[in-house]
Every structure is written in structure tokens, then in C-alpha cells.
Amino acid sequence: NLSFVELGNNKISGSFPDFSNHPNINNLLLFLEINQMSGCYPESICDIGDVALTNNYDLPFQGEYYRFCDGEDQIGAPCGSFFLDNPGEILSDCSCHIEPCESFHPDFDMLMTFYNALDGDNWNDNRGWKVASEGYVCNPCDFASFSGTWSGISCDAADRVVCIDMDGISNCGFSGFGGNNLSGELPPLNFEKLETLILDGNNITGEIPNLSEVPSLTHFWARACELEGAIPDLALVPQLEEFRVSFNNLSGPIPDLSMNPNLNTFSAIANQLTGCFPDEVCNISLFEAEGNLELP
User: How far apart (Å, rounded) are the C-alpha atoms in residues 41 and 170?
Assistant: First the structure.
């Protein structure tokens, strides 16, 4: 008597069952989109009243079964995520075979270090990053025709990463403290062309690493995280324009700012900073340090 199944957007795996013996196959409605099904289609799928299988990436044609019903051969059909650099194909045993990509982007290794250090598999949005960690995507600046880059990544005209935005809205600008469920300690950063790093609203612990290997950095935002320790030497990022680290557990003095002539925003509200203000704070358009009880 089965007539309707709605199991979309789950993690159902295995092959699509043969319904050839179902007495009401022409009236059967099956909605199984966005799952993890694999294998080949049975002939009976073409007799079912309605089937939704899109975004089952390991099925032939990524779940677009009607192409099989229209006469296309499912052996050799494309499979695998639309986001892959090299789409896979269905082999004679009905498995989806995907060739790993071979040439890596100059920022790839550092991005993978960042992803792994901050529990990337559990981010709210890890489009591009996840399949890259599995070896199937190599270029963060050329991810898919409709998304362009990995989530949170912006690139320049030379295909170098210039922005990493992990505050939950990937626009390389202020969008609140929602975060992207990053968790862990920031690794040493080595991005030659990175200009903007936004980490607001994540569970990032430990110290801010040395910034000597991000010489192009202009914007560093890490508000409402769990950062601790001293603010690093900002003289190593002479192009810095905005430094926002409010609502953390940072301690120690405000560093020398004499080598940051472009700095227009320094915001470190509600930390545990100590010592005296450097003279340069008088020249900063927006300087905020309220809530640091041991500052003057």
C-alpha cells in the first residue's frame, strides 16, 4: 500500500531499490533528494509516478534519473559533486570514480592547515573546503560556476586569496557575530596576499599568532571569540587599517602602533589589557578600549 515517501535532506545511502513488483508503481511518489545514495538505476525507476533524487552526487547524472529514462547510458555517466574540479564517472560496477586533482593553488596548503586546525568538518558552511580536504578540489578561487570560490573566500584578479570571512555571512564586511562554528586555536598564518581576515563570533581559543607572514593584511577582525594572550607585534603588518578584537580575553599592553600609519580603527573593548596608552592612539579615528579595568 506504499504510495508516498518523503525522506529528502538526510544521509540515506545505498542503491535505489527495484519497485518493479509494486502494484501501484505508476502512482508511487518518492522524494529522496539531497542524500548519499549510489549505484545504478533499476529499469523500474522509469515507471514510478514521480521521483526526486537530485543532489545524490554518487548516482548517475548526480540523481537526474530522467536522463537514464530518456536513453542515456548510466555507465560512464557523470557523477560526483558539481563543485569538483574533475567530475567523476560511473564505472561498470556502478560505483562513482573521481580522480583527485593534481595541481595545487599557492594558498591551498595554508587554507587546509586553517581548515584542519579550526575543525572545518563541523563548520556551518564548508562548501569547497570539505571536498578540498578530500583531495578533489584544488583552487579556492575557481570552485564552481555559480559560487565562484569556497565559502568565505574572496580572490583578486591574479587568483590569490585576499579575504577569509568566517563570521557567518561571506561578504568580507561587518555582518554581526553569528560565526561559522570555527573551533580551536589559530594556526600560524602564511598568506602572502591576504588583506582581510574576519573571525567574529567563533570559538577560537589561544593566542593571535605572529603576523609576519601576512604582510598585506589591512583588516583583522576577531571579536567575540575566546582569544587570550598578548596582542602580537602589529609593526609586522604596516598596511593595517582596522584591528578589531573586542570581547576576548587578551592581556598585556597595547603594542607600539608607530609603524601603522594607515591604522584608523583599533577596537579592543572588554579584554584584560594593561599598561599605558601609546602616543599613537591620539591619531586613530576610532579607538575603543573601554572595559579593560587596568588601563588608565
Answer: 38
